[in-house]
Each structure stands twice: as structure tokens, then as C-alpha cells.
Sequence to fold (604 residues):
Amino acid sequence: MTTLAPTDPGTARQRRSRASSSLTRGSAIGLGLTLTWFSLLVLIPLALVVVSAAEGGWQTFADTLRNPQTAAALRLTVTQSLLVTLVNVVMGTLIAWVLVRDSFPGKALLEVVIDIPFALPTIVAGLVLLSLYGPQSPIGIDVANTEASVFLALLFVTLPFVVRTVQPVLIELDRDVEEAAASLGASRFTTFRRVLLPALTPAITAGAALSFARGISEYGSLVLLSGNLPLKTEVASVRILTYIENGNEAAAAAVATILLVVALLAITVLQLVSRAVARRG
Amino acid sequence: MGIEITGVSKRFGDFVALDDVSLSIPSGQLTALLGPSGGGKSTLLRIVAGLESSDEGQVVIEGRDTTGVPAQKRNVGFVFQHYAAFKHMTVAKNVAFGLEIRKRPKAEVKAKVDELLELVHLTQFAHRLPSQLSGGQRQRMALARALAIEPSVLLLDEPFGALDAKVRKELRDWLRRLHDEVHVTTVFVTHDQEEALEVADSLVVINDGRIEQVGTPDDLYDKPASDFVLSFLGPVTTLGDRLIRPHDIEISRYEQAAVVDGPITRWTRVGFEVRLEVTPTDPRHPDPVQVVLTRSDATALGLHPGDRVWLRPQSGADTVVPA
Fold:
């Protein structure tokens, strides 16, 4: 026993230093796989889009953007996605709250229904929306061929994102933190603003990012209801498809690159918001 | 003054958590609510804090009837078992929370926070986040946060329950000293009798939603009102037809006027203690009797495993007839 004791810490130290200086074989393989996978699926295709946009030259890029129809499509896509994300941040958080904190008959059913917009093939969602809010609407609401149809379709397909990101965080939140705030004199509203919201913000922004990204890329659920009217209800993804159908791949890549930049910008801004709110508490 | 609890009852569905409890907790004392899990002690504490409402009864804190007063307006400091730290705020911000809610001037808040952090020895951790503190430090932070609002009473719900044994011991010594300094009426809930006996000025033993006994640690240990209190406050064994503490039994290797005699059938040594089990030869009392004595006593008496011994209560020892 006594001879073992001095050697023990030595081997422990060795093991530790090896782990910190280089990867073990297992994690090296893991990292390699991750990078290869990520490159094949994401990095290379994205780089290609940018490259093909650049191939057309700056002129094609500028021309595409200056095209009124394309500009209108991009504006509509980004505006509606922003609006929808804003609504989702509020409604999604509220729905998550109700699902976690309240018990009511039909709760289990609602839990399942929440995911349907997400699970449904988007063209089916489009069909559902068309039959309910189209010209033959049984409830007399016809938003077909208007901007509202884009808004509605995006709302439908992005509903689950904020709910599903906020819900698990809300479940994990300790109730005694709220009780502590109450015993210190904080009103329900103050407790929400200063204690709960900072804890939920990372989840809310993650959900918002997903929702926005889905919004700017949406195609299937809105093509039927929106009618794709140029300058009015045509969205960016439809515009890309038109360019490709007309053989103008450089222009399609240019629009795609713009969407890529917008998505990156949105994710960055949401990250910053998340950090700022978390720190403010 | 202090806390006056009158006729408080609380049910959760069919489960009766508190059954017509009345209790008077004097001002400025450190009182322990002691009892087994699910006995109702935490529920009582939470009712006093306004975190739970009672079905019946009245709670008066420092002369003020709290019926219908929400937790926010009771000015009660509450410390939770799992710290309930505001994780995204620094230690200083956590402590300042109650004062900021009350819209105190910035300078006053800062002075008070500094003073409290000094009191709980966390001054150098003021700008850390709770996740960077140990369990004991987090609980001290929670205590400072509760004290910041200058509460009329300080309530602690199993405050040391989540800590390891060593830290728990340090922290309860520290709580005792803190109370001697601050003198706020303090009630803490625990299921650990040693903790209660060591720290509290007075004990309230609660079981099955009822109060079993109220008194000083000495009263309860020496004059238990029931066999429940006796067995809850410390180890207990059956000698003949009476309950007695294992260290209150006189043991001898020589025949004497004894309640029970028999061989030593089990011998466990724990530190300075020797714990014996004696199986009585008398078939009317077949249950083994536990005896505890110091190792030096065991050596002096010349005891060995398997020896036949005679047992009787030590003179002056309290025994209780089981209910």
C-alpha cells in the first residue's frame, strides 16, 4: 500500500496533461466526422451558392437586386418573417407557459396538436390554409392573394418553434425562485420581468431564430394561398425558383446569398439580444 | 408578540397536512420546527410566509394579522433548501433585489449590501454568479438576501438539507452565532434532531400534522411527552417493557438486580463508542436490547463479545412506557 501511494498522483497527473494537450483517439475521430459531415452538408453547398453568385459578377448581382420584382419579394419575405417572429415570441411564450403551468382538460391533446404545423408536409399545410382562408372559405374569411396570406401561412408553420424551445426551460425552472422573489416583495409582473424573463430569454431567442429562418425560407405552405402575385405577394423563395426555371442561375444564387446574409444577421442580432437581456437582470 | 398561530388547518386533497395547530413563537428567539418528512412542518412555515394559504386558522406576525395578506406584503425573510438563487444575477445583485424592489436610494442599497456581505463573509464574492459559489456560500447569500429587507421574521426551510455533513455543521454553528448578533425572530424547519438540539432556543416537534411537544432542547430530551418525541430526538431501545436511551443503560458482567440479562450477541465499534446488542434470555422480552458505552468503559468493565451481562437503567435515567 505505502509503495503504491506516491506513484498514484503521478499517473493521475500524466493522464490529465495528455488529455489537455491533444485529443484522444475517440474524440479525434468524432471531431473529424463532425467536420466532414458539416462540410459536405452545409459549408460546401453554401460556399457554392456564394461562388455562383459571384461568378455572375458584381453587375448581375446588382441588377438582380435592382429588379423591382425581386426587391419587392425580398422586402415582403423579410418584413413578414420579422412580424411573424415577433408574434411568435409573445404567443409562443404564452402557450408554453399555459402548457407547463396550467392544467386543463385537453392539455395532452394540445401538446400533440402544437407539433402538427411542423410535422405536416408544407404543401398539405398550404392546402389546409387555402380551403379555410381561400375563396371558398367556410367561415367567410378570404385572404387569398393578399399579403395577409403570407403572414398567415408563416404563422401557421412557425408556431411550434418558440413553444418547443421555451417549454423545457420553463419546466426546469425552480418554483422556489419565484417564491423567493415574492417573499422579497416582488409583484408577479416584476418577478416575470426580472427573474423569469432573463432565464427564458436564451430559449425565446433560439425559438425566434428558428422561426425567422423558417419564415424567410418558406415556400410550400404559402404558394397556394398567396397566388405569387409579382410585386404583391411573391416571396423570395418563389423568386429563386422562377430565376432557375428561366435558366438565370446567377440571379437565383444572388437572391439566395442575400437570404443567407439576412439569416446570419438575424441569428447574430438575436444572440446579442439574448446576452443583453440575460445580463440586464 | 413574535408569531401567534391559532387553529391552523391545511389539507391537500385527502391528505391532512396540518390539523388544528396552535403555536406561539416568542420574539427574538431561534425556534426549530422538528419532525419527520411529510409531518407538516414545512407546510406550517410556508403558511406563515404566505407561500401557502391555510384552510382555517389565523397567523399573527408581530401583532399584525396576516390573513389574506400576500407573501409580497408580509415582510418575511424566507430561505429555501435549494437556495433559490437568481442565477443570472451576481451575488451583490441577489442581495440587493428586495431593496431595489422597494426603490431605496442607490447609495443606501449599496451600503446595506456591503454590510450584509460582510456579515455572511461573501464580500470578495460580490461580483460572482451563484453558479460560481459552493453550496454553503450560496445558502449564506440566500440568507443575506432574506435579511436585506429587514424582515420581521426570518424563516428557513431545511436550510442545510442540501449540504454535505461537514459544511452543514459549520453552517449551523454560524447560524447560531449570526442569530446572537442579529436577534431577528427566526424559525427553521429540520428533520435532523441533532441540528435542532444544537442550534435552537426552543423546539417544536411536529408529527402527522399535529404538535407533539414544545420546549427547550433539555426539556424535550430529558422529559419527552410521548414515545414519539423520545424516539425522534435520539436513539431508543426497549429494556423490559420500557423505552430507554441506549446510553442510559447500566451494564455489568456480574449478577445483579437487573431488568434483563443475556449474552452480548453483537459488537460494533464506531470511533470512541461501542454499540452492543444483548439478546435477553427471558422469553417474555425476546427483542435484542441496544446498549451504547464508551470504549474505555467497555474495557474497564472487561466486556467481550458473547459474555453474559445484566442490564438495568442507570440511576436518574428517564424511561417511558410505550403508548
Q: What stands out?
A: The CA atoms of residues 135 and 163 of chain B lie 6 Å apart. The two ends of chain B are 36 Å apart (CA to CA).
